[in-house]
């Protein structure tokens, strides 16, 4: 392999940092040797109602997977994110909101946010919400979305945020799975100058969700919407009538905080369940150390609250730390490709956290839209969602950060609650494309296909041998699925689903998913979900979906489709199928390429050989491997010959 350039820790970064290199090694060792002492100490960063006496209690054994942290302590997440800051920083900005339209922004102080949250919490209670209820949130990127999450946390209701880009059906499935009784939404969202019909989608979903008794609607655009009196309530009216001082409920550390649905290799999306104490501590602590957050810093994570990144690094982590967190309603290229950097200049952003897909899309626009802005406030850059290719890393470092800002390439998952493998800016020399080293308390293991742990420099599948506080606790309503998915492939360990290489310096290089999950623009999509949507079309007989390398998205969605006998494979039908999936699941699931497949490569027992389909989609047909076990080897030649070209 070619030499990789290493970027030493900059003196600027290490001088101000909470953690320098020797402190990292010292703390890491402590966290591994004595997790109870380490986390017992760290846990004091939170305000507890009743302090814990037990710290870690976790087993990864397949017949007894059980994960508990701080189990006898009690606290409230909304109290930790709001009330405890009021005395010292009540008048400090909590949220800087930047609207889709560059002319629209506002600042919300901790005191104002506290009141917003208290009022909504009281309003929800008046609608009958209580501890343990599931409340679904389907909202645009407005402060009311963060406040809705915290209002649920305040009264002990479990929130389930559904990304505003999902279809009515996807929303309905998620509401049904967790049996939500309240839905919080907005009339319309606004993204890139276009309106998103959230209430209309919510109405379509609610038609199939009798469990929903009330729908709370934020007025964002004032557009025309449908209304069902008795069920639908205006957010502003509900809040106006409620108390500005609703008390925070006392919750056990292991009481659920939220559910977040994520795609897997099989079946419907799973409800990943996170609990209160461990999750909050882990998101706060990683936010503080990975982004080296200090008082006075302006921090911006460009994710949407519909994804875990928005939960941990827009809302819970930063607010638990009393930070200033910027929330952006819009998109990177509206009104033009300078928008991100204009926002950085306008609000003097110091820490900027985004996804490689956004970097690659902006890179394509050239340097001018970046160079026409100042960006001198930037001190640290972050990346998340997929491996960042070294070219994008270098562009981010040189063009965006003027070679001044370290880049933290943070590896984690919805399931992990917070960052597990990452550089710390004052402690870790960087290698473009590597997520570098494990965070405190994190013990990665790379295993071969049989589960044998590999030592030293190696490549294999990435597992974790021990629990960390932010780990998911179960799949909502289906603990067996939790055990099956994460603890059965390599018994006794948590399997991430990612491939990984470790180099001679002990640095980790994530190579991507090794299961049937594809990573489209940093978002997870199960191939099985797209397949089941395609076969639901009346003209489709069979479908197989795989990922292929895509310049901007990282991976694109490649679908092989077999039509029913007598159906014509036309260009029109191809477009119709793309629209079908888009409408069924949401725009992020739209196939990029559809190839008509007269037959699919199957084993004699009828199993589709995806390995072959992946190779063809990757344009690597010279390397198909053993095809002798195929029932009908001739189908392969046809597929190779008719491979779609990336447009
Ligand atoms: C999958 C998790 C964690 C928030 C965003 C995605 C991939 C994530 C990185 C990174 C390489 C990464 C992995 C992981 N991934 N961050 N820095 N380098 N790969 O959350 O939807 O749960 O997806 O995203 O494949 O398993 P998610």
UniProtKB/TrEMBL annotation:
Q: Which cofactor does it need?
A: Mg(2+)
The protein's Enzyme Commission number:
6.2.1.1
Q: Does the keyword Lipid biosynthesis apply?
A: no
What GO cellular component entries does it have? cytosol
Annotated positions binding Mg(2+): 535, 537, 540
Cite a single GO BP annotation.
acetyl-CoA biosynthetic process from acetate
Domain (AMP-dependent synthetase/ligase): residue spans on this chain: 83-466
* Catalytic activity reported: acetate + ATP + CoA = acetyl-CoA + AMP + diphosphate
Major enzyme class: ligase
**Binding positions (ATP):** 385-387, 409-414, 498, 513, 524
Span of domain Acetyl-coenzyme A synthetase N-terminal: 24-81
CDD domains linked: ACS
InterPro entries tied to this protein:
Ac_CoA_lig, ACAS_N, AMP-bd_C, AMP-bd_C_sf, AMP-binding_CS, AMP-dep_synth/lig_dom, ANL_N_sf
Source species, domain of life = Bacteria
GO terms for MF? acetate-CoA ligase activity; AMP binding; ATP binding; metal ion binding
State the UniProt keywords alphabetically: Acetylation, ATP-binding, Ligase, Magnesium, Metal-binding, Nucleotide-binding
Gene3D superfamilies under this entry?
Answer: 3.30.300.30, N-terminal domain of ligase-like
Q: Which residues carry this modification: N6-acetyllysine?
A: 607
Q: Cite the AMP-binding enzyme C-terminal domain residue spans from the record.
A: 529-607
| Residues holding CoA | 191-194, 309, 333, 521, 582
Q: What the entry says about post-translational processing?
A: Acetylated. Deacetylation by the SIR2-homolog deacetylase activates the enzyme.
**UniProt cross-references to HAMAP family, sorted A to Z:** Ac_CoA_synth (MF_01123)
Q: Which PANTHER family match?
A: ACETYL-COENZYME A SYNTHETASE, ACETYL-COENZYME A SYNTHETASE 1
- Which NCBIfam families has this protein been placed in? Ac_CoA_lig_AcsA, PRK00174.1
The similarity annotation says: Belongs to the ATP-dependent AMP-binding enzyme family.
Q: What is this protein called?
A: Acetyl-coenzyme A synthetase
Native species: Limibacillus halophilus
Its gene name is acsA
